[in-house]
């Protein structure tokens, strides 16, 4: 079924005597990577070399030094792993519409392979590059277990409509991933230049105000170690995962976001682990159904990050209540500095800004309060996405987009009891949080935060 992971982004032919270029974007790993596996396989069939290029742009969303540090250290590991397979790794800098076609022309590339990402600006890169290439651009979904275009042929209303479609297909797609074949032809045009990652880090123009984290090490090796730790200690995930005071989560979302880990590898490892059945089922629901539903939403909905992308009922109810009085109204800067009247919300914001990760349940409460304390749902969405993408290690991702849109605009949810400001959007409050977990313990933890990040 491997061939169903791909789609062609143009109608150009393959130049069978030219090297295969894998333009790595979203899936930054040298193992368990269907896009790389395809590139090596077809290159071996044609007896031509394969080369991997990562294109670094000057601006990527709200990317900061925190994200670049995690990504660059992971890419350094990728480059070393590829070298062991006799595959050169090349770092390109600039706009892909210029760098990729230039590289293709310089090295007489015969086919370009790229991984899938449903976000608008990355898809626009692939579309623009495909239109200029003289050879075929082949896109591979190496991020989802079931390719996004096969999991469903439309935007799904909610998890309950998506789940049966996905689960029927998981039986065929959730298999062991083969080892990367050895390359039969070496890249001999000229040696790929060794990337000085420290120099790259120092010359990048990203936001340096948000510093890297120390509690989580990047890269595939570190991600696999985290996965091993989770399957040996994750007992109780089903019942305890919504308590932010309990460290029962896998902490794998940054590795999945950067593609340093394959979701398929994670799922297979959890499947065959000794975790109790209820914990396996709960985790796999989050990893497969909920996670791949977010790609479905962004893939089929071009308005995925604005109110116009929400269900009609949600747009209507928010519009009807947009002029409701707000007891509190805060600016983006006040939110960013955790300067609200709500100590719980402030603690959540501090966790995110300092650790680069907020507990999943907290992120729902956090985003809903932004809706309650801003002048419009449009402003709430904009602020929540800005903060999420700037501080979360897994920011600028369909998961974050849908998390915000679920919380503020009812995406993948239903209408609830009507109330001021929220209309029929699901409501969450401080008393509800107190019924979930020890709120004061959580507040105390982030009031006395002393830079010693949890392990």
- The CATH architecture assignment of the largest domain turns out to be 3-Layer(aba) Sandwich
Report on the biggest sheet: 6 strands, mixed
N- to C-terminal distance: 40 Å
Unreliable parts: 450-455
The H-level CATH homologous superfamily of the largest domain, spelled out, is HUPs
Q: Over the alpha carbons, how many angstroms does the gyration radius reach?
A: 22 Å
SSE topology string: EEHEHEHEHEHHHHHHHHHHHHHHHH
CATH secondary-structure class of the largest domain: Alpha Beta
Instruction: Please give the domain count.
Output: 3
Shape call: globular
Q: What proportion of the residues is helical, as a percent range?
A: 40-55%
> How large is the share of residues in beta strands?
5-15%
Q: Helical element count?
A: 20
CATH topology of the largest domain: Rossmann fold
What is the average per-residue confidence, as pLDDT, rounded to a whole number?
94
Could you give the count of β-strands?
A: 6
Kindly report the spatial arrangement of strands forming the biggest sheet: 1-6-5-2-3-4
The helix/strand class is alpha/beta
What do you see in this structure?
The protein folds into three domains: 2-143, HUPs (Rossmann fold, 3-Layer(aba) Sandwich), CATH 3.40.50; 146-177 and 218-302, Serine Threonine Protein Phosphatase 5, Tetratricopeptide repeat, CATH 1.25.40.80; 307-447, DNA Cyclobutane Dipyrimidine Photolyase, subunit A, domain 3 (Orthogonal Bundle). It has 20 helices and six strands. The chain has a six-stranded mixed β-sheet with strand order 1-6-5-2-3-4, with helices on both faces. By secondary structure, the protein is of the alpha/beta class.
